[in-house]
C-alpha cells in the first residue's frame, strides 16, 4: 500500500507546469557570491549526470533554470537566480516540495554551487 501511494505521488508530480511550481514556497532561498551566469553553469554541470539538459532563460535581473524530470520531459524544478551586488540571490522551487522522499540531486547541486 505504501509503495502504491509513493508511485501515485511521483506520477502526479509530472503534471506540474512552471507556473504551478513557482506558486509553491521555495525549498531553498540563499545568497551566493557567484554571478548568475557562473552559478547557472555550475548547476547545469552538477546535474548533467542525473538529468537531461535544463532550459536556461533570462529572467528579471538574472536567469531562470527549468529542470526537467528524470523520466519525462515536464519540469520538476525551477531555479531563479537574480543578480545582486557581489553575487546572486537564488530561489529553488520544486514540484514535489512536500514529499520527503523526492530526489535529492537538485538540492545537492544547488547547495554545492553556492560557494567556490
What sort of overall outline do the alpha carbons produce when their principal axes are compared? globular
CATH architecture descriptor? 2-Layer Sandwich
Number of helices, counting only DSSP H or I runs of 4 residues or more? 4
How are helices and strands ordered from N to C? HHEHEEEEH
Largest sheet: 5 strands, antiparallel
Q: Percent of residues in beta strands?
A: 25-35%
Mean pLDDT over the full residue set: 86
Please count the beta strands (DSSP E, at least 2 residues each).
Answer: 5
If strands are numbered along the chain, what order do they take across the biggest sheet? Answer: 1-5-4-3-2
Radius of gyration: 14 Å
Helix content: 25-40%
What is the count of structural domains? Answer: 1
Protein name: Lipoprotein
Keywords: Lipoprotein
Index terms:
116 residues; alpha+beta; Double Stranded RNA Binding Domain; five-stranded antiparallel β-sheet; 4 helices; 30% strand; Lipoprotein; lipoprotein
Amino acid at each position: 500500500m505504501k509503495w502504491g501511494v509513493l508511485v501515485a505521488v511521483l506520477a502526479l508530480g509530472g503534471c506540474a507546469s512552471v507556473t504551478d511550481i513557482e506558486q509553491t514556497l521555495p525549498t531553498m532561498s540563499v545568497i551566493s557570491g557567484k554571478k548568475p551566469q557562473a552559478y547557472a553553469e555550475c548547476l547545469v554541470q552538477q546535474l548533467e549526470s542525473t538529468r537531461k539538459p535544463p532550459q536556461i532563460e533570462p529572467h528579471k535581473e538574472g536567469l531562470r533554470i527549468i529542470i526537467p524530470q528524470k523520466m519525462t520531459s515536464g519540469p520538476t524544478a525551477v531555479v531563479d537566480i537574480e543578480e545582486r551586488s557581489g553575487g546572486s540571490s537564488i530561489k529553488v522551487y520544486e514540484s514535489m516540495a512536500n514529499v520527503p522522499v523526492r530526489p535529492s540531486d537538485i538540492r545537492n547541486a544547488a547547495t554545492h554551487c553556492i560557494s567556490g
